[in-house]
Design brief:
heterodimer; A: alpha/beta; six-stranded mixed sheet; four-stranded antiparallel sheet; 7 helices; 34% helix; globular; B: alpha+beta
Chain lengths: 243, 386
Amino acid sequence: MNSVALEVRDLVKTFSLDGATINAVDGVSFQVKSGEFVALVGPSGSGKTTMLSILAALLTPSSGQVLIDGQDLAQMNEKQRVKLRREKIGFTFQSNNLIPYLTARENVEFMLRLNNKRDRAGRVRSDELLARLGLAERLHSLPAQMSGGQQQRVAIARALIHNPAVVLADEPTASLDTERAFQVVETFAHLIHENDRAGIMVTHDLRMCQFVDRVLQMQDGKLVRIYESKQEIMELAQGTLKH
Amino acid sequence: MRSFFLATYLAIKEVMRNKGRFFLVALVIALITVLVLFIAALGEGLSNANRQYVANLDAQLVVFLEKSDYSINSSRLETNTVKSIRRVEGVEDAGPIHTSNSQIVSLAEPLKVSILGVEAERPGMPPLLEGRYFRGGEARETVMDGSVAERTDLKIGDEIEIRSTQGTKDEFYTLKIVGLVDEQAYSFQPTLFLPAATWELVRPQSESDLNSDTPNPNIIAVKLSDPARVEEVRLRLQNEVANIEVADIETTINNIPGYTAQQGTVQTQGVFTLLIGILVIGGFFQIQILQKVPQIGVLKAIGSSNAVVGLSAVIQIIIVTGIGVGIGSGLNYLFSLVLPAAIPLAFNGAWSLAAILLLLFIGPLGGMVSIIYAVRIEPLKALRLG
């Protein structure tokens, strides 16, 4: 494990709904180091997607701090946030992940274009990454010509190609069958570790936790438990954990 | 600059990978372009057919009978008025113009024509394209509008027969074609130019007119020594010559019966066609942006700026509009080659260019709402929160 890539300090996000104030995220603090893959779990409405949106610099917190690679999101204007998302963050989403009119290769290389890094080395790395994800034959396929699993793997390649500090995954297995889901998360975890990135995956499927290093459990906007031992995590993933 | 290249890349990729969809919209824009250019050409053609002779007069002022409201048909001047006008300082020359209608009956199909009585080599008589001017007096000679020669097999040296109703009888007169002039349509009809005395003889006349053989000009075309002094000479003419009113060429054209109303109608049609174009393009791109909300959300979430997203939409609209206008202009050009001369269409380069530029402008204008919408899409739309 290396330096801290992501740090969350006493984060709060409140929403007003019909006159009532809802604490979607309520005083959450944690750190994620480079080379660490963390799962953010919890029931619907527990605040994990709100948390992910704040970490992605897409939503402004009501209070607290988020530091990515040492940079405080609260101190940034919108232009700086866009730059941060482009340079320091990699994304995979639940669905609508890829740009439909770009091929697998073009989708991945688009991140390089955005970062002005689409040189020969970048293009070679892009093809190598896609090949490692089993997509060597799919470089010229459009998203509509690929399965859900293949699309998610292209999204993973896109999330990693520009060497971001943090990789965020929002329910990456939601639209996949079990076998594909395991394959995708396993590959994802492997690449996070290999590339020494900090990875955070929001998932409601506890079985996927077997591939992560730590599990952060949220409930009602609060971080209620952190699973750190491999045994606890495996028991959580297998549904055999005793509370 | 990087935003521009990224936006161009995205725009071109999307258009190329969705050729069918974008081509259909380009085709709609092409049809709108054809319609707009067609209406512009029709407006110009009708306008030409109505005003061509007056617009091409080698004169700066036109003299009418007082209180005729600058209406050529209502104006009937004394024969000696032209001499009085020639004596006014600042007038280089003046020529009487007598207007009427007749019909060439010696053709396979009778052809309606305007017959204009003028004096050779005076204002009112256009320059010759070929041949010679008619002789004076009652010479049975005519200089013919070139467009008649184009439509028929008539040429210099041929004789034509015209029919005029005089009193209660149809009278037939034979005229020899001695010269041709460039397109000189007047009152939607090609023109025959005749000596004034011949005109008086052959023109349709009522029973009472038959008792007189003095040709009264409808108007007098006045050429000035210094064309820059139009207003000054106009006032001088009105002060020094009795029973006249004087107008410049533009006023004369605008008072040709039906001219202003006709142009207003055609221009309104053109404006409405452009408005329809704006709505069609705007509607298409708005629907497209609505379909792409999650995709635009993803683009923004991964770090594309508003400039990239907005510019991409603008470039796409410009590409599609450009293709549509290009196809439409090409189709229009082909139309201009095959349409018969009888249809009053005039494809004026300047007007067509203005219409094309306007059409290219309405694309981004129509897509403005969708562009603003695209820029305002929150990247959160990429996540389930959106």
